[in-house]
UniProtKB/TrEMBL annotation:
Record-given protein name: Uncharacterized protein
Domain of life: Bacteria
Species assigned in the record: Ferviditalea candida
Amino acid sequence: MSVDGVPPWLIKAFRNRVDDLGQRMNSHPRNKKAWKQASVLFELLQKTFSGEQRQMFSEWEDHLALQESIEKEEMYVRGFLDGFHMYACLDELIGQMPISERFGKSDNPHN
C-alpha cells in the first residue's frame, strides 16, 4: 500500500497493528459464532461447485479480500493521521487561549 506522504516504516507499523486487531477480533468469543456460521455456509456452497467453479470462486474471493484489506488499511492510516492532525490543531488553538480560559475555566462568574 502507498499512502501519499506516509513513510514506509509507519505503514509497516499500521499493517502490524491491523493484523493484530484482526486476529483478536477473529478469536473473540462474540465473533466465533458468526465465523463458524460463515464456515458452515461456505462448505455447503463449495459442495455445489464444480472444480472449475471452485477455482474461479477462490480467485474471486482472494482478489476481493486483498482489495478490501488494502482499502481498510488505508482508511486506518488516514483515520490515524486525521486524528493526529486534529489533535495538533486543537493543541495549537488551546496554546493560543489565555490560561484562565483553558479547559472550561474562566474568570467570568457567568460561565
